[in-house]
Structures are given as structure tokens and as C-alpha cells.
């Protein structure tokens, strides 16, 4: 039993060493195995073109591993948008079939990355749009790493909106300091109905904050009306519009409903609330 358990760990050490050796700095750093904490690993399962889990929360200075169990190479690239809370460090990696690649992130914030061989960056949407025919269409091969911690200079107020005549949330990620507020102005002519994505463990969606109240009759009324929520619990809030998107019950990931005007772009977003 013990031997069976140890074998994958040793295999992982070999992969780590290979990755480090291929970095080109000429020396192989010793690998310290942390047997206490769960490893921060994102898996690329075979033939699905997804990153699993979709959202990975980690502490600063964590080394994150992407393990490619697929039979083709995948790229792992931060989207071009950068701010103090979105992609504060950029990375660009390629994981060959059967191999693992790692990156160590020190700066707290949300890292939004995608595979540029399976999706295209759309500046218009600020989203990675999936290529036609990918196995999980309309889901694109993208993922979120959330490095927890405070971010100096974050505002107490953030604004977002529903775009005029589109089933689209203007900004995918907004961020406020704890105690701050986020306002959504609905510039569309239809109402929209916001709800948090259920099933994630804290610190993702760690508290009832009222987003789910935007599911009700008076949710996001149209024609320039605004709804404001105060966020008193730090965390990463993942939400979507119930009428224009759905949640995959296994991946806990939002995807666009076919009738949504911006299909395949999903009507979803994140609110980062930092301590
Ligand atoms: Cu909607």
C-alpha cells in the first residue's frame, strides 16, 4: 500500500527535475516535497481541453503545477489585460504531452489564463473565446489562479455594467477592498438575473452578500438602473446571469446558453474582495 502510494510521488519528483533541468539555467535545484499541504496542481485531462480545477486559490509564493495528461501540447498564457489585481505577473508556458510545468506567483491577485491553441483572446469581450469544435464548447480552455492576500491601493468602490443590447457583463473581474461596494448598471433593455455559482468551497463565494438577491423579481432592472452590493467578507465571488448562462455541475463552471446574444461568451464574472 505504501509503495503504491509513493510511486506517483517519486514520478512527480522526476517530472519536476525534468522541468527544472529544461529551464536552461544549467543547475537542477533540489526539490523539497511538501507532504503537509495539498499540492497546488491544475490538471489538463485527456481529450477535454479544460483546466481542472477552473479556479485554484493559493497563498502567495506558492508553486503551481500544471500537469498535462493530454496527448497534445497545451499553452498556459495569461491574458493581456494587466492591473494591480488582474494578472499582476504574466506567464507563458507550454506543457508537452505527459509533462508538468510550474510557475511561482508572489503577487496577490486574480490570474486569468488560457490556452492560445484552443481559444483566442478577444479584446472586445476581454475574454478568451473558444475555437469552434473544442470538446467543451462553448466553454473555452481557460482558468483562474487566485493568489490570496491584500493588495495595496485597491479602491472601496468598483463599477461594472451590463452592456447595451448585449447579454454581456462589461468587466470580467472587478476588485475592492473589504467593506467596499460594487455597482452594476444595466444598460440593456432586458432585465438580468445574477446568482453566485454554488458548490465552490470558501474562500470562493465565502458569504451571502446579496448577489443572489439579484436573482429575484427586481433583479437587474433594465434601461440604466443600478444595483449596488457591499462586500464585508474577503473572498473571490464567482457569479453569472441565470437567464443567459448555466453551470456545469461537475466542473462548477459557467457557460453561455445558446439563446444568449453573445454566445459562446458567457455572462459571468468575478468580484475579488481583499483583506
Ligand atoms: Cu442576462
Share of residues in strands: 35-45%
Average residue-wise pLDDT: 87
Reported by name, the CATH topology of the largest domain is Immunoglobulin-like
CATH superfamily of the largest domain: Cupredoxins -  blue copper proteins
- What is the CA-atom radius of gyration, in angstroms? 19 Å
CATH-level-2 architecture of the largest domain: Sandwich
Q: What compounds are bound to the protein?
A: copper (II) ion
Q: Share of helix among residues?
A: under 10%
> What are the secondary-structure elements, in order, as H or E?
HEEEEEEEEEEEEEEEEEEE
Structural class: mainly beta
Low-confidence stretches: 1-36
- Overall form: globular
SS elements, strand count: 19
Given the structure, what is the number of helices? 1
Q: Give the neighbour order of strands across the main sheet.
A: 2-10-7-4-5
Terminus-to-terminus distance: 43 Å
What is the makeup of the main sheet?
Answer: 5 strands, mixed
CATH class of the largest domain: Mainly Beta
Helices and strands in order:
Blueprint: H1 2-21, E1 41-44, E2 55-58, E3 62-68, E4 74-78, E5 92-95, E6 100-105, E7 109-114, E8 119-122, E9 127-130, E10 142-147, E11 157-162, E12 173-177, E13 181-186, E14 194-196, E15 225-230, E16 235-241, E17 245-248, E18 253-256, E19 268-274
Parallel strand pairs: 1-3, 2-10, 11-13, 12-19
Antiparallel strand pairs: 3-6, 4-5, 4-7, 7-10, 8-9, 13-15, 14-16, 16-19, 17-18
Amino acid at each position: 500500500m505504501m509503495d503504491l502510494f509513493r510511486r506517483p510521488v517519486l514520478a512527480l519528483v522526476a517530472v519536476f527535475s525534468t522541468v527544472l533541468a529544461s529551464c536552461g539555467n544549467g543547475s537542477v535545484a533540489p526539490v523539497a516535497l511538501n507532504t503537509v499541504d495539498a499540492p497546488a496542481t491544475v490538471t489538463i485531462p485527456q481529450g477535454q481541453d479544460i483546466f481542472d480545477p477552473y479556479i485554484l486559490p493559493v497563498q502567495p509564493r506558492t508553486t503551481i503545477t500544471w500537469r498535462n495528461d493530454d496527448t497534445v501540447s497545451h499553452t498556459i498564457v495569461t491574458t493581456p489585460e494587466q492591473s494591480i489585481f488582474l494578472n499582476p505577473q504574466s506567464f507563458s508556458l507550454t506543457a508537452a504531452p505527459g509533462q508538468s510545468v510550474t510557475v511561482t506567483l508572489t503577487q496577490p491577485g486574480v490570474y486569468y489564463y488560457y490556452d492560445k491553441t484552443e481559444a483566442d483572446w478577444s479584446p472586445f469581450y476581454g475574454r478568451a473565446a473558444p475555437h469552434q469544435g473544442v470538446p467543451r464548447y462553448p466553454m473555452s480552455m481557460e482558468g483562474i489562479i487566485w493568489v490570496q492576500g491584500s493588495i495595496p491601493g485597491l479602491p472601496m468602490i468598483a463599477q461594472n455594467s451590463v452592456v447595451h443590447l448585449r447579454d454581456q457583463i462589461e468587466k470580467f473581474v472587478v476588485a475592492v477592498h473589504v467593506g467596499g461596494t460594487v455597482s452594476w448598471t444595466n444598460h440593456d433593455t432586458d432585465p438580468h438575473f445574477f446568482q453566485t455559482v454554488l458548490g465552490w468551497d470558501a474562500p470562493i463565494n465565502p458569504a451571502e452578500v446579496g448577489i443572489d438577491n439579484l436573482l429575484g423579481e427586481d433583479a437587474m432592472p433594465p434601461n440604466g438602473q443600478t444595483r449596488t452590493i457591499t462586500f464585508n467578507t474577503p473572498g473571490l465571488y464567482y457569479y453569472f446571469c441565470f437567464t443567459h448562462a448555466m453551470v456545469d455541475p461537475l466542473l462548477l463552471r459557467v457557460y453561455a446558453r445558446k439563446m444568449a446574444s453573445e454566445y459562446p461568451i458567457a455572462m459571468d464574472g468575478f468580484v475579488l474582495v481583499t483583506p
